[in-house]
């Protein structure tokens, strides 16, 4: 019953992942390729964490 109001960590990670990709795209459009690469790398790390949580079944 108390788990009913518990937040889903995958949902928050997914939102963070989408924000990072959006920021990376905007950086790319502005010509800032270094920031684009950094944000893309961070987004890839978030995606790996999401996949790990999915494989654990949480």
UniProtKB/TrEMBL annotation:
Coiled-coil stretches, from where to where? 10-56
What Pfam families does this protein's entry cite?
DUF6435 (PF20027)
The record's section on InterPro entries has:
DUF6435 (IPR045493)
What keywords does the record list, in alphabetical order? Answer: Coiled coil
Coiled coil is among the record's keywords: yes
The protein's name: Lacal_2735 family protein
């Amino acid at each position: 019953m108390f788990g009913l109001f518990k937040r889903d960590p995958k949902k928050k990670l997914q939102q963070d992942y989408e924000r990072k990709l959006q920021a990376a795209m905007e950086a790319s459009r502005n010509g800032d390729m270094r920031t684009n690469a950094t944000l893309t790398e961070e987004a890839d790390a978030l995606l790996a964490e999401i996949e790990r949580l999915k494989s654990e079944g949480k």
